[in-house]
Amino acid sequence: MHTHSAHATKIEDRLRLSGLRPTRQRIALASLIFAQGDRHLSAEKLHEEAVGADVPVSLATVYNTLHQFTEAGLLRIVAVEGSKTYFDTNTSDHQHFFIEGENAVIDIPNGPKGQPVVSNLPEPPEGMEIVNVDIIVRLRRKAIGQ
């Protein structure tokens, strides 16, 4: 294993503060996930990155770790189709564009005061409150000549 760097210590602290034990695999996967800033990734993409970085981990472990990170509040799930789930490192309230045919997820910028672009939400039923609003706007590239 590499020498213990300040980056690894920061990752360990982040895991501990989220209630997760900083195992070698969690530290390695968290380093891959969070090193590039805010982004959207699938379990398959993270597994591919892990293999490329010589991190010995199975796809099942990647799935389990991503779900543990989500439960701990480190990631947010973006479900775009029944079988396709992305994990978002930006856990703030925001919406997404999904580009069909490219399997790409892009953040929709928030309004000028930092608020989500959604407005005119219906009033929730009595005794209920809106916790989160997930919106995915599906896009596709225009055909040439349109």
Automatic annotation (TrEMBL):
InterPro entries attached to this UniProt entry: FUR, WH-like_DNA-bd_sf, WH_DNA-bd_sf
Similarity section: Belongs to the Fur family.
GO cellular component entries: cytoplasm
GO MF: DNA-binding transcription factor activity; transcription cis-regulatory region binding; zinc ion binding
Species of the source: Phyllobacterium leguminum
NCBIfam families: FeRespRegIrr (NF045677), TransRegIrrA (NF045678)
Record-given protein name: Ferric uptake regulation protein
Cellular location(s): Cytoplasm
Keywords: Cytoplasm, DNA-binding, Iron, Metal-binding, Repressor, Transcription, Transcription regulation, Zinc
Main location: cytoplasm
Biological processes annotated in GO: negative regulation of DNA-templated transcription; regulation of secondary metabolite biosynthetic process
Chain's gene name: fur
Family matches, as Pfam families: FUR
Subunit structure as annotated in this protein's UniProt entry: Homodimer.
